[in-house]
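User: Mind token order:
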Amino acid sequence: MWHNRGMTFVQLDTKQPRTTFTPRKSGAGFTPLVEDGIALRVLKTLSSKLKSFFNTRHDLFRTRAKNTMPSYTTGFTLIELSVVVVVIVIIVSVVLVNFNDVRKNARDKQRVSDMAHLQLAIEQYYDDTVAYPMCGVKSLCYSNGSYAGDIGPIINLAISPTYMRIIPVDPLNQTADYYLYYYARGYRKDPTDSNNCPTFTGNTNDYVLATRLERQPAGPCSFEFMTTALGKYPNLILGNE
């Protein structure tokens, strides 16, 4: 196609897309906008770039937050931790109570066994001497405490070492609650007493062997040298009647 502009002929390229101008009023005249196709491609490219930019920033923020902030999705709540602590305290309390009972029972069994072995050795001594032993020169003795007057330590009982190699003492062997081993020559359990409490006879053929068990109430009987142990008297008494 040829267009006549005075003396010059210009050939127009009909293969290029037709350009459409949309007039926009601006100021005193009209300013044409850019081609529609070019503008659309520019907008699409810009939109894609912006979307990619914000996605990248968002992923970066999430990665930093994940690395720097603690995760609370796999932990325990305060209520859950409190419940666990309470359960543990209850279990520990029950275990300790049972454990203390087991220990008391074991000590009582040891006391019963010691009393039986002491009694056997004392009776063997009597069979050979026709008199019950003394604690050295004392007729009253126990395993711990203040030894004065006619009271001595039970480890001096004359059955050792011939009839018993070592004289045993109470597993606790403490005077606060009078968990001790007691021996008294010249005493015997009184059959006329409702509690069978020991009574003084002064006879060398009488004796009393006693202790206090933890898992039983304190006994009602006192010895001459136990007047200060009110409410803590022995509850296991052996001897002749």
